[in-house]
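FAQ: What does the model actually see?

It sees only this:
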Amino acid sequence: MAQHTQRPRLAAPACRGSIAATLAAAVVATTASCGPRTDMNSAEARARFSSKAQSMQASTGGPGAIPAPVEPTATASVAAPKAESVPVTPAQPSSATATVAPAAADAAASRSAQAAAPASTDASSAEPAVDPAAILRTASTNSWAALRAHAVEASIRSPKLLLELAPAALHDENRGVRFVACMAIAESGLQGATLNGLVPQITPLLEDPSSSVRAAAMLALHRSGQKVNFTPLAAMLQDNDPEIRANAYLVLGELGNESAIPLIRQSLGRGMKLVNPLRVRLVDLAAAEALVKLGEEFEVEPIRAALFAPPEQAELTVVACDSVRRLRDEVARPMLERVVSASGNSMRSPEIRLAASRALARLGAGSAPLVVAREYIAHPDARVRAQAAALLGDIGSPEALAILAGMLGDGNPSVRVAAAGGLEGSE
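And it is asked to produce this:
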């Protein structure tokens, strides 16, 4: 743990205090061992930590799952937007992390896709050349909400396509799709005049029934140059729903205003007393990532420690890998390499290895990520293939893109969308 005792931290008797201390009990050992592989995969982790998954499951009657992940997929309250200086005004306490965020196939959604589409495990048996944008357009109108969300999220790398798909997504009946649309707009890099056409469609979402959608709408409007009242985020930080609180942390981290730091610290250890402890720890990781983005770099320690969480807490490892990737934490590079290279009884699951490889790809880890991706492009589980496709898209080399082109003919729609997203972004 980093030694920064001079920094003020919440230390009320009934509170958990600093995030690093909170996760010390959760992440039992940060030893050299990467631990045995587990059945938990990144898709399932994100399904339980993303408002996208929870929203879509709730609307389809599926089992409830809690928050943030986009990945991409894909992930606020009182503070001001990221990288912008907007004062934060405390309000009554109350996310999901992008996790709804950013991004990645959700477990329940993937299972639905596997049932709805023929199982194809051979990435090389692709159909004739298909336009990636056409695949994403078709998926964005699919009757399955999860696929619509994945399509919008996958279009982030192609601003023109995102602007085309966003209007319908912002009015989607499913709150998970609306959340993803707002976050995609916010994360796309589009700003000012380019987004003016979407402002009238985003603004009504400030009154959306979903707190997560409201938070994401605030961020999207801020990125479009609109004046936004961020006071409601303060209440979301105190909400007992892990999804709402985690998404509040996500948005506050993206807003980048340091005035949110005290609000985040004051929320630690409060509420969620009846929530599964593992979910609480996942929310703590979201808070840690937000604090790092706001300048509290020592809070990266619990994220690094979570890379070596025990098997029964594999969700922590997946979420930590995603955080390290987003934060571009160079210090974690050797840790990620250990996670990926562990063998024998210590070998991690395909999903964890792929999540770690995506982080390494972001850090510019040479050819290693491509080697890992190749191992799983023909995996029998479509969720794994979709994750491999996302990794190939991150790599973006000619060889990786050639493999992705072959995956456009995969029998599973989620895999095709993941492949199309990687190729669309390469244009």
